[in-house]
Amino acid sequence: MAKTIFNSTEKSNFILNMTEDQYGKLASLGLIAACFTTSLFTIVPILSDKASYSISTIGLAVSGVLCMILAMIALIKKYVSRRIILPVAAFGAMLLWSVVSLIFSYDYNVGFYGFPQRGEGILALIFYFCFFITAASIKRKKAVSTFFTAITAVGLLNSLWALIQIFTGELDFPVYAWLSTINIDTVAPSGLAQSPIFLAMLLSLSMTAAAADAVLTDNKATRIFDIICLCLYSFVLIFTHCIMGIFGLVFGVVTVFAAAVKGKTPKVRMLSVLAIVLSALTAFVIGINFKPDKNGKFGLYDGYILWSADSWQRIDASGNFNSNHVDIDSPLDVYSHLNNKTIDIIKEYPLTGTGPEQLVYPQLYTTGGHPDDAPVTDIIPSNQGTFDKVYNEYLYTAATRGIPSAIALLTLIISVLFIIRRKLKDNADSHTFITGMLVICGAIIFLIGCSNITFSPVFWACAGAACAELSEVSETKKRK
């Protein structure tokens, strides 16, 4: 007889009577939502001048609440394995210390909900934790395979949208479509990721999933689909005009060779590399001949994109760069400058940080003629040389939520990598390999990129899936 609580009906106790197979099906839907909702909700501010990118955060909330319910079910049903207690505890510790950081922060509202149009406060971290738990609780390999397909598909959606932006200059935030306000006059597509760099981060994950699957799958139709996606990803990554795009291409090539070696597949499948390389070369040739900047070049514009276009012009989260302090034309100088300034902030706020999403606050030095009680988004743009994001998530976490949070983050990622290593030794199946490559990709991205609501839901779901104890046999078949 099915379990019930307080003599209630069996149907009202669906959670108690849910099987692993049923949970896996629901969880796969939750992870699909984690991949797509932010991108889909971003369509609204792109198409309407009356809408802001705060609507994108609603997309995160939709998938976040769904996976919050699924995570609670997983905990009630004890689907979370004891073997992953360390990463779960590390994630929990990171969250708890973030609350401490919030208490000592400049702005409680920003700390909890996130900076306007960024949306990565403590609430977003809670959602990321739920994505992680939901994915880690899956027992069915089919559910994880569905998640891999979703990662590939969201990359395809963003790439197709980016192609429209590249060739028409439409359906994008104006500063990315032209970069004309900074005298470059070229296209850097953001897709549905809100920034060309964030797009490159997302496509790096999609590239990894598609590259590994193209080598390891025995399904010819799936392999063809993966190769088509690889071509599109590579083409778009070149046009993002950032170091992250180059990383995505390189890691995609590495993934193909690693998958071929690990899976001992026919060497002909390594030709997937050609899809990446030839498509990237085609994009470069088109770019240099038909889409160069005003100087006739086709290069990397990380500084302009992350500082002028994204933080300053798009969402008023920082002042513009100060050319006396940083060479904006040199990506390496830009990243070095941001890292060094952030280290100084960490020294000033070592334990609790500045507060979640409040890196810019201690840098402010003028109200720009605005009253002291004016909205912060009116005051911040007047502070030249300030920035709200450092493109190293480990440093960013230490600066905004304290060194203890950064230690917890490192512990979390390293423990997941050790779990992957153990699983690869015990059972080198394709699911373990693909999730392993995705986590490695994301861990490296955090060295040269920052968390955002388009990339991070996918990454944390990948980290959770890497910890999942998967079985080919369903619970129903086991009973038989």
Task: Tell me about this structure.
With 480 residues, the chain is mainly alpha-helical. The protein has one domain (11-301, 390-479). It has 19 helices and no strands. α5 runs parallel beside α18 and α6 (141-168) packs across α8 (196-216). It is globular, with a radius of gyration of 22 Å. Mean pLDDT is 91; it is low at 475-480.
Write the layout of secondary structure elements.
Elements: H1 20-47, H2 54-76, H3 85-103, H4 108-113, H5 122-136, H6 141-168, H7 174-177, H8 196-216, H9 220-239, H10 243-263, H11 272-290, H12 302-314, H13 331-348, H14 376-379, H15 393-401, H16 403-426, H17 430-448, H18 456-467, H19 475-479
Estimate the helix proportion, in percent: 55-70%
Please, what is the average pLDDT?
A: 91
Classify the beta-strand content into a percent band: under 5%
Alpha carbon gyration radius? 22 Å
Q: Number of folding domains?
A: 1
Contiguous low-pLDDT stretches (5 residues minimum) are 475-480
Largest sheet: none
SSE arrangement, N to C:
HHHHHHHHHHHHHHHHHHH
For the secondary structure, the number of strands is 0
- Broad structural category: mainly alpha
Number of helices: 19
Ends distance: 18 Å
Taken from the alpha-carbon principal axes, the silhouette is globular
Task: List its traits.
480 residues, mainly alpha
Short description:
Helices cover 64% and strands 0% of the residues. It is mainly α.
